[in-house]
Amino acid sequence: MTATAVSSPGAAVNGRRAGRRRRLRGGLAFYGFISPWLIGTAALTLFPVGYAVYLSFTDWNGMTSFKPWVGLANYQQVLTSGDTMSTLSKTLVLTAVVVPVTIAGSLLLAMLLNRRMRGRSVLRMLIYIPAVVPPVASALIWKVIFDKNSGAANRLLGLFNVNPVSWLTGGNVFIVLIVVLLWALGSGIIIDLAALQTVPADQLEAARVDGAGPFGRFRHVILPAISPILLFQTVLTVITTLQTFIPAILLSPVSSAGGLGVFTNIPPANQVYMVDVYEQFFNYSRYGYGSAMLVVFLFVIVAMTALIFRFLGRGVFYTVDPTKARA
Amino acid sequence: MVNTPEFTRRTLLKGFGAVAGAAGAAALVGCSTGGGGSSAAAKVADIKPGTLTIMSPSGGEITSASIAGFQKAYPQLKVTLINSDPTRLNAMLAAGNPPDLVRDAGTDVTPYIASQGLATNLDPYFAQSTILKPADIMPVNDVWKWDGKQQGQGSRYGIAKDWSQDAMWWYNTEVWDAAGLPPRAPDTPVSYDELLANAKAMTKTAHGKTSMYGLWYVTPNIDYIAGMVATAGGRIISEDLTTVDFSSPEAMQALQWIVTAGKEGLGYSVVNPPADWDGPELLASKQATANQGYWFTGYAATTNPAFETKLQFNAAPLLGSTRISPTYGAVGYWIPVKAANPGASFAWLEWYCGGAGAKARIAAGDGLPSLHSLLPLLPQQSAYDSKAVATQENELNYFHVVQVASPYAQNTAINTTLVKDFPPAISGDLSVGALADKLTTDVNAVLAAGKKALGQ
After folding, report:
1. Which of A7, A201, B273, B291 could be B216's S-S partner, Cβ–Cβ 3.0 to 4.6 Å?
2. Of B416, B417, B436, nearest to B425 (Cα)?
3. Is A66 within 8 Å of B454 when comparing Cβ atoms?
C-alpha cells in the first residue's frame, strides 16, 4: 500500500497546494530572473521596431510633430524603386563575395594555425589583431592606404611601373570595401580554431589507420564534425555583411556638410542597401520611407536566413539531435 | 471613509474619449505647425538660472576659454556642449526637448526651420538688445531672415557667430609665379574661365600622378553653383522656392565649368576626392589655390604661420559680369521654439556673436564679425594681415544674399543628389545638357517629396 493511499483527503489537498506553491515560486523565480531581459527587449527592441513599423506608414520628416499617414505608399515605392533594386543587388553581390571568402579563408587559416609549429601563439595573435581594431579605425586606415596620390597601395604598384589607380572612386571603391570587410577574418578564425578542438581525435586516428589522406580526413571527419559551427558562422556572416554600413560611409571623401555629421559624398559604388537607408533618414529626412526600407530589409534577411537553413542545414551533422536536445 | 474612484465602462469610455480628443487636438496643432508659414514673434523671456545646452561640432570650435568667459559673465548659467548630430537633433526636436541653441548655416537652414515652426522668431529679442542692435548688424545676417516666402526679408531667426564671403579664394604666390603667371590685383575679380587657364598652368602631373593641383576641390554644392550662377545674373531656385532649374544658360555655364575642371583633373573633384579639405591640402603644397573666405587667415595663422607670406587673398571670381560675393554659410545659432531657457539662449547669442566672446575671435582672424562696430578689431599687425583686411573690406561692397535654400528640403538633401548625379558627367558618360536635365528632375523630386511630407 502506498503512502498516498493511506493519507487523508486533507493531506492530499495540502500536497497539491504545496505543489502549486512550488510551481508558482519556480515560475516567479523564472520570470524574476528573465524580467531584466524581457523589459530590455520590450523597451529597446520591440518598441523601436514597432515604432519603425508605424513610421513606415507615414511621411514623417523627422523634425515636425506632423506625421502624415500614407498607408502602403512607402512600401509600394520601395518595392518598385530602381534605387532599391540597385542597392539591394550591390548588397547581394557584396554578400556573395565576402561570405564564401570569409568562411573558406578563416577555416583554411584556422587549420594552418591548428598545426603544431614554432611561434603558433604569436601567429594566432597577429592574425586576430585586425578583428579587434574598431571598424571606424580600420576603414580610415584603409582609406589612407588606398589614397591615389600618397597611399601605400599605389606606391607598391609604382614599384612595378603601374600608373596610380584612383582606388576610392568609381567602381574601385567597391573593391576597397570588400578588402576592408575581409580584413576582419580573425574573429572567424578564432571560432574555427575552437571548433577544430572539438573534432574527436580517435575518429581522425581511425581515418588515418584506414588510409584516408589529408583531404579525405577533412572531407569525411573534420567537416562533418564542425559543420554546425560553420552553419552558425555562415548565418552570422551573411547577416552582418547584408547590414554593411560603417565602412561604406567612412570610405567616402571629405563631406561637404562640414562638421555637421552628415555624409553627403558617399560614392555611388558603395551605395549598398543600408547606406541608402542612412541617406533616406539623415540626408533626405524621409523617416517614413527609410523605415519602410528597413521593414522590407528585415523580411529579406529573414528569407535569406531561412534559405540558408533550408539548403545548408541538410549537410550539417549533429552529434546530438537538436530537436530532441534539452538543457 | 476613503472614496475610491469607481471604474465603470462609462467612465472608461469617457477617459478614452478625453485622451482621443486630446490626441486629435494635438494632431491638429501638429498639422498647423507643420503646415508652413513663419512663426509668430516670441515674447522676450528672462534668463533663468540653470544649464544652457548648445549643439555644436566637437573639436574645439567653442573653446573652454569661451565657456569660462560666458559663465563668468552669467554665473547663474552652466554651459553644456553636445556634438552636432542631425539624428540627435531630430529626436530632441520631435520629443519636444531640444537643445537651447543649435549651430547651423543660416544660408541653408533658415527657410526650413522658420517655415516649419522649429525656430524662435527673435525679433523682440533683437529689438531690446543693447549688444546686437539691428542698426549695427551686418547685412550677412539677412540670410537668417524669413518672411514666410523669401529668405533675406522678414523676421530674424538666428545670427552668424562669424562669417566669410566664401566664393573668395587664395593662391600660393610661389606656385603662381613659378608657372609664369602675372601677379593679380587682389581686389579685381578673375573670370572663372581665366581661373581654369591659370589652374592648367599650375597643375603638375607625371605618370598619372598629380603632385600639384592648380585648382581647389570643386565639390558640386548648391551654394557654390547658385553663387556662380548669380554672378551671371541667373538663379537656380524659383521665386516661390518650390522648384529648381539647372538648364538655364547661366546654370549650364556653371555646370560646364565644374565638369571641365573635374574632367581635366585641374583640382580634386567628386571623382577624384582629396584626403582632406582645401586648407591642409594648400598648406601641404598639394594644391595651388583654396576656395576659402577671410576666416582662412586665422586658420593659416594657427596651423602654419610660416606659410602666410606665400598666400594672396583674392576677390570672388565671376562667371558673368554681375559682381556678387556671397556667403555659403553665415554659420551661427538658432533657438528652438521649445528651448527651455530662451532668455539664456539669447544671452549666449549676445555674448558670443556680439560681446566679449565675439571680440576675442574676431581679433584672432577667425572670420568677419556680425556687427559693423567690431570690424576695426580685424587683425592688422602684419603687412599680410593688413593686405587681407583691405581686400576683404573692398569685397564687403559686393555682398549679396543668394537664395539657395527651400522650406521643403534641407540643403543636405539637395547636395546628396548633386553628388550622385555629377560623376557620370565628369567621367564623360553624360553630357552637360543631360546632367542639367537630370539635376533638375532629381532635385525637384526631392523638393516635391519634402512638400508632400508637410501635407502641402
Report:
1. B291
2. B436
3. yes
**Beta pairing partners, B406:** B409
Restricting to B residues 77-106, those with a Cβ less than 8 Å away from any Cβ of A are 83-87, 90, 93-94, 104-105
Q: Which ranges of B288-426 does DSSP label H, i.e. alpha helix?
A: 296-303, 342-353, 356-363, 383-395, 411-426
pLDDT in tens, B272-311: 888 788 899 999 999 999 999 999 998 898 899 999 999 9
Residues B209-228: tens digit of each pLDDT: 889 999 999 988 899 999 99
Give the model's confidence band at A258: pLDDT under 50 very low, under 70 low, under 90 confident, else very high.
very low
Beta-carbon separation of B419 and A256 below 8 A: yes
Q: What is the pLDDT of residues A86-137, one digit of tens each?
A: 999 999 999 999 999 999 999 999 999 888 888 888 888 888 888 788 888 8
Q: A61 and B450 in contact by Cβ < 8 A?
A: yes
Closest chain A C-alpha to B124 CA, distance in angstroms? 24
Spell out where B154-198 has E strands: 155-156, 159-160, 169-172
Interface test with B, best of A69, A144, A256 (most B CBs within 10 A): A256
DSSP string, A105-131: HHHHHHHHHTS--TTHHHHHHHHHHHH
Q: What is the pTM of this model?
A: 0.80
CA nearest neighbour of A315 among A234, A215, A240: A234
All 3 cell numbers of residue B182? 602675372
| Among B34, B93, B449, beta carbon nearest to A286 | B449
Task: Find the helix or strand (DSSP H, E) in which A290 lies.
Answer: helix A287-312
B28 reaches A (C-beta below 8 A): no
- B11 part of contact set with chain A, CB < 8 Å: no
Under a CB-based contact definition with an 8 Å cutoff, are residues A171 and A269 in contact?
Answer: yes
Bridge partners, B50 (sequence order): B77
Q: What percent of chain B has pLDDT over 70?
A: 91
CB–CB contact B30 A256 (8 Å): no
**Nearest-angstrom CA–CA distance, A285 and B232:** 32
Which residues from chain B sit within 8 angstroms of residue A258, using beta carbons? Answer: 277, 329
Q: In degrees to the nearest 10, what's the CA dihedral of A263, A269, A273, A274?
A: -30
The verdict on B285 touching A (C-beta cutoff 8 Å) is: no
- Residue owning grid cell 503512502: A3
Strands B101-105 and B331-334: antiparallel
- For chain B, the distance separating the N- and C-terminal CA atoms, rounded to the nearest angstrom, is 58
Asked if A66 and B87 come within 8 Å (Cβ–Cβ), the reply is: no
Closest CA to B287 of A193, A149, A274: A149
Would the CB atoms of A282 and B86 count as touching at under 8 Å?
yes
